[in-house]
Amino acid sequence: MDKVEKTLEEVCEEYRLPDSEVIRIGKVINSCMLSGKVMSQNPIAIIDIAPPGSGKTGLNGLALRELNNNAVVINSDELKPFRPNIDELAKKYPEYYTKVTNQESNKWTDDLFDEAVKKRVNIIFEGTGRNLKLLLKRIESLSGYKIIVRGMAVDELNCLMSIIERYDGQVKAKGWGRLVTKEHFYKAYTEMLDTIGKIETCGLVDLTEVYVRSDNPSEPTCIYSSSKRNYENASQAVICGRNMDRKLAIENYEKSLLNQSKEKIDMEEKLKIIYKMQELFLKSKTFEREI
What is the pTM of this model? Predict the structure, then answer.
């Protein structure tokens, strides 16, 4: 049967892992990810929230330096490669990759998070913040931790360009890539404002911060802290940060136009993102002329 004829259910069944294997791999992940991490008397949990392509890796790097590398970074996507036959699955069924792997990777994420809390290890948790209920549940479980929530404020055009660049880099390096869909991106991009606002006011976190990109991707710049109130609140800071980033996004897009014209479009979802980037760019240029 050709791959395009297979349904999601059929692919899930083809790559289904036995429960015993899921448990075994989970133990391997916990051992690997927690190796060398030392228990802290005053543990810290840093929760990085941002849509795909915004630069959460830079936030993670900042947090690791602050914690002297004594922290476990927890990200569901980074646990997927522990799954057997992951390259084969990604190459044969890129459109199903996320949904097929989510069930196991989400369980491994939960187990790693719980084990890190049990051992009182510093935690850096990365996510889009789309599932507010689950995120609040995680925060509630961090009894005895100092909890810092950080968000990245990046213009949508810059995010979409980063998503494409990451995908192309993966294809070049591994022969396959995982492309975030336009719909998935915008759901996270839109819901972030509500998520970070509700987390800031939930009474469970010690500090809420908002960052923007800098010239050095590994050193994002803080523009808001709930301890200083540079803006009215975190949600307002995200809006202002995105607006600040728009001029840079337009400049970056203009620089990328030449490469785009020579590029071969190998996925329908990629084409959707490129069309959206063009739409945002033209809208921004029209706005500039009007003012």
Answer: 0.88
